[in-house]
Amino acid sequence: MSQAKIEEHKRAVTATAAQQSDNIAHALAGAGGGILSMILTYPLITLSTRAQVESKRAHSTTTDAIRRIVQREGVSGLYSGLESALFGISVTNFVYYYWYEWTRSAFEKAAAKAARASTKLTTAESMIAGAIAGSATVLLTNPIWVVNTRMTARKSESDEPALPGAAKKTKASTISTLLDLLRQEGPKALFAGVLPALVLVINPILQYTIFEQLKNVVERRRRMTPKDAFYLGALGKILATSITYPYITVKSRMHVASKDGPKETLNGSLKRIIKEEGYVGLYKGKLRP
């Protein structure tokens, strides 16, 4: 091998290592940010998840829901499953950002080889990168979220008060919940709700598309400001979540469905919820007064 080829090989190895390091840095940053936001918003996530799976109390207000949980389980009830959620969000964000950066890098290298004027990702390439990263994340982390949803939605064993003198029941840990799930329902239960979760991969794609379209409208009139970007991003997220929220509800219910309960398809679950609870049943936990 000539000296020139050796040097070229060294440069390629160095570039690959640098890219790998950059991917991991983005992944770690995403994981850290996810942990912080999860800690700050977890009581709201608990309320939303319980609203999605507890159909009997569909019309209770946020205040009533908080009061009921605190009376029955204490303030810690608002943080049921936090341990698994923190682990889940750190793994989820790490996997997502790592795969997104890896896919983005692959597209940029392809653009450079094709001698394209700009190696920046096009809108379509950004969507594809997001879809690939999202799908990989769902398949790898769904078991974590099944366990978390079970812990979050579970009541403190029963609504009925314990008998006088009876030993206080302890809450199950993440590991015990996982082991009980495997023992009673088998490994297949860890992938309950994976189909609606894969459908939800389109959420960030919709958000990005809505944001870009709104940005184009603004830029035709005036220059975009950081404040505009913030509000348009928030509006894009609200609209995207409104469109995909029924699948979040179905996913949560599939996560807590019993092994002995009826096995339903994605469309079957949607139809049953609409039939029994109306269209409002698909949006439980989204808008609570």
Automatic annotation (TrEMBL):
Query: Where do the Solcar repeats lie?
Result: 21-106, 121-217, 228-289
Q: What is its main location?
A: membrane
Pfam families per record:
Mito_carr
- Highest taxon of the lineage: Eukaryota
Query: Which keywords annotate this record?
Result: Membrane, Mitochondrion, Mitochondrion inner membrane, Peroxisome, Repeat, Transmembrane, Transmembrane helix, Transport
> Which GO MF term does the entry hold, naming one?
coenzyme A transmembrane transporter activity
Q: How does it sit in the membrane?
A: Multi-pass membrane protein
Q: Which SUPFAM superfamilies match?
A: Mitochondrial carrier
Task: Name the residues that span the membrane.
Answer: 24-47, 77-99, 127-147, 189-210, 230-248
Please state where this protein is localized. Peroxisome membrane
Q: What's any one GO cellular component for it?
A: peroxisomal membrane
Family listed: Belongs to the mitochondrial carrier (TC 2.A.29) family.
Q: Write down what this protein is called.
A: Peroxisomal membrane protein Pmp47
